[in-house]
User: Fold this.
Amino acid sequence: MSERTGRLMALSAAMGGLVTAAALLIPVIFKPEPAPQLAPFTSDWLGGGHSPDEICTPTKQQYEKQYPDYDIDVRSFEANSKNSPGHVTYQYHCLFTATPKRR
Assistant:
């Protein structure tokens, strides 16, 4: 084996060790933090004329400011109640999830 070949093999072995070390460290160094658990929001009972977007958006915007590295998604549903003379009221429920933004 020539001296040059020996040096190349030593360098290759050393680099392989560095690559292996880097491959082991990268998940530790760049491990993302767990996504935050976001509290749900439930509105008071409201008269007609409102929508889930109207009720849930302010809390969603607050979470977006608080967690700028995450996309905030909303799932909403409503409950309704009819009292005696036929007046209907609604209660909105908003569930939020955070997903890391792609970079």
User: Anything to note?
Assistant: Residues 3-29 form the longest helix (27 residues). The two ends are 47 Å apart (CA to CA). The CA atoms of residues 67 and 100 lie 9 Å apart. The helical segments are 3-29, 52-66.
